[in-house]
Write a structure and sequence with these properties.
20 strands; 23 helices; about 675 residues
């Protein structure tokens, strides 16, 4: 490794003059630019000076910043415009993958940095020989073989690294920062190698200014929700040893306190960076620890980069590597408790540009992607059993939300710590009423076209059984919903919402039509072209499935959060976590009980929730490969677009829950107080 590194680093250092004499035109520009970037990565890798990290931070990302992106080799429009479709997409792929070297250099991960620099050098040497011998670049197929081998050869190493970071106790860069850094000095942020803006700096400064009591309140709410998640689902936390903590940069002081809380539960943290590589996939929605996103369009353009080389053999290879990685960390995986996730919201909504130049899966590759996702879930669940793990999620605003950031932040803390007991009792009234129903009818108003009938599981003993789960502040913080798994047969109609943000992406006039619980048609109004709208939904909500079932039907009860959003004009900025509590919502994909259907779950009144399965998840007993989809996306109808939500008894009589956006069921009227105080 040391010999390879020395050779590669020396080769990069002396390459600029050679490129100028060996190549010309776009080829010269491409390799000069990417070699210059590789030189920057080497400097980052070799440096330990905090001042240098701060100085170099913007330079590492400036190529893909929105104002520069159209001239970046990472922009597929630019690359294809200069090299043509095949060569352009491949060279764009390589330029994007080289950017994963930033995190490798910051982490001092020699191999992860080296393999990307070696890929660049290999392509350069091929090109240089081609021009020297034939006055032209080699055939595209030769370049593609190099990229295919790169992904296939190194997938084992990259996958093993990711699984280790997920289940083995942390000891790397992030762990050292959390436990050792002077968090009063915001320079610590630059040590991550993530993109740092005024937003992260101001957030870190604000968190540093809070008193210990408020920090403890935030951390305790986070970790106590995690603990309650195990208790409420009857899972044994005492047999677990690790918890995967995911967080945005700037919250380290809260995370430090949370690490201590988890330690008192016998759990050590595991930490990994949000993915920035083709090996684990890129996404606008960050999952891990992360800084500012320099350009969400970059992530959107490269989310399906594997389309360049994906075939059945590569998918098989990826799955084999995944299983081998879990086998290597089998003991740690067995004792892993699941994720504790801190989300943020408040940045300007991202509206992507859909580019025909970007790599995208064809129909065969979409089927392969579904196969990989399905098997990925099965393998993961085999080694980290779903029936033994849990999670928790909490969200806070960031300074980008506006001038009233601090005021909004305090308001969100209040939302995250609302009275558990009060909501539990109100929601029990709702559940008792809905236990009498065989269907729920939902109808929109004011232009909302929703007209939906959802079939419910019938219970045999109302004294001991319940259809809906009473969800208070445990795994999903804040408090405020009741939810069930619908019966698919008889679930029919239209779900519509005027505007919603799902997985960091905006959808306008989003509609789904259901037939016996499955999506039968869908549309939105983001683009002028109807086919483009459908593709947008297929890629980002259906996740390449031809259809998805309704996995959850729920009623959000957090009117306080709804009013807060309207008061500050931040409705479009709320994460799904909070947005789903501000009206009825319906999830496409797996049920809320995915991989844990056979665990008995009880409401606070002692009644067992019996609606955990649907017709699809029941296939796990006979055809497990067909039982799960690996996705779960909530679509929420806000109260002010809701004309009616009622339960319908077997005799056809109605149980009115919400009418014209207000709760009308006796025992729930307290929820309207937030509207009245608006």
């Amino acid at each position: 490794m040391e010999e390879r590194m020395q050779l590669a680093f020396e080769r990069i250092a002396g390459l600029e003059e050679e490129i100028r004499s060996a190549l010309d035109g776009n080829w010269q520009d491409y390799f000069l630019k990417e070699v210059s970037f590789a030189s920057l990565l080497i400097k980052l890798y070799e440096s330990s000076d905090a001042g240098f990290y701060r100085e170099i931070n913007k330079k590492l990302y400036e190529d893909i910043l929105p104002e520069n992106y159209k001239n970046s080799w990472c922009d597929p429009d630019h690359a294809i415009g200069c090299f043509g479709e095949e060569q352009g997409r491949l060279l764009c792929f390589v330029a994007a993958e080289l950017r994963a070297g930033i995190s490798a250099a910051a982490e001092k991960d020699a191999e992860a940095l080296l393999i990307r620099i070696e890929l660049l050098l290999q392509l350069y040497h091929m090109t240089e020989r081609g021009f020297a011998e034939d006055k032209a670049a080699p055939e595209y197929a030769l370049y593609k073989d190099v990229v295919y081998s790169f992904v296939s050869d190194y997938y084992e190493t990259e996958c093993e690294r990711r699984i280790a970071q997920t289940v083995e106790p942390a000891g790397g860069l992030a762990y050292k920062i959390i436990n050792e850094a002077d968090l009063s000095d915001t320079d610590y942020l630059y040590r991550y190698g993530e993109y740092i803006t005024g937003n992260e700096l101001r957030l870190a400064e604000y968190i540093a200014s809070l008193d210990e009591e408020k920090i403890a309140l935030m951390a305790d709410t986070f970790t106590e929700g995690y603990r309650k998640g195990f208790i409420n689902t009857g899972k044994d936390l005492s047999i677990k040893r690790t918890v995967n903590i995911r967080y945005p940069l700037g919250f380290e002081r809260v995370i430090r306190k949370a690490v201590g809380n988890f330690g008192a539960m016998g759990l050590k943290p595991t930490l990994y960076r949000a993915s920035d590589t083709v090996f684990s996939g890129r996404s606008v929605n960050k999952n891990g620890f992360f800084g500012a996103n320099p350009n969400p369009q970059f992530d959107y353009d490269h989310r399906e980069d594997l389309a360049l080389i994906m075939d059945g053999q590569l998918v098989t290879r990826r799955l084999e590597c995944l299983e081998q990685a879990f086998i290597a960390h089998k003991e740690a995986a067995k004792h892993h408790a699941g994720p504790a996730v801190m989300e943020v919201f408040g940045s300007s909504p991202f509206v992507p540009v859909s580019k025909t130049s970007a790599l995208a899966y064809n129909d065969e590759q979409r089927s392969l992607d579904v196969r990989f996702r399905t098997e990925n879930i099965r393998i993961t669940n085999q080694y980290i059993p779903g029936e033994e793990r849990s999670f928790t999620i909490i969200a806070f605003p960031v300074p980008d939300i506006g001038e009233r950031f601090e005021e909004i932040f305090d308001a969100v803390i209040r939302i995250n710590t609302l009275d558990y007991e009060k909501y539990m009792k109100i929601q029990m009234c709702m559940i008792d009423a809905l236990n009498e129903a065989v269907k729920v009818h939902v109808r929109g108003m004011g232009g909302n076209r929703t007209d939906l009938y959802v079939s419910l599981k019938e219970i045999s003993d109302p004294k001991t059984q319940a259809v809906y789960e009473n969800c208070v502040a445990d795994v999903n913080i804040p408090v405020g919903e009741v939810f069930t798994t619908p019966v698919l047969k008889g679930t029919n109609g239209i779900l519509n919402v005027s505007r919603v943000f799902l997985n960091e992406l905006e959808f306008k006039d989003l509609s789904f039509e259901f037939k016996d619980g499955f999506v039968s048609a869908y549309s939105c109004a983001n683009f002028a072209d109807e086919a483009e709208n459908k593709r947008y939904i297929e890629d980002n909500v259906l996740f390449h499935h031809k259809s998805l079932p309704m996995g959850e039907a729920a009623i959000g009860t957090n009117t306080t959060a709804f009013v807060l959003a309207r008061k500050y004009g931040i409705e479009g900025l709320l994460p799904i976590l909070i947005a789903e509590k501000t009206g009825p919502h319906f999830a496409l994909g797996d049920t809320c009980y995915s991989h844990a259907e056979d665990i008995k779950v009880y409401n606070p009144d002692g009644k067992e929730i019996v609606a955990k399965d649907n017709e699809v998840s029941l296939l796990r007993r006979t055809e497990p490969e067909k039982a799960y989809f690996g996705c779960h996306t909530d679509v929420t109808i806000p109260y002010d677009e809701l004309g009616l939500l009622e339960g319908i008894r077997g005799d056809g009589s109605s149980i009115r829950i919400i009418e014209n956006g207000r709760f009308v069921l006796p025992g729930t009227e307290e929820l309207n107080r937030a509207f009245d105080e608006e």
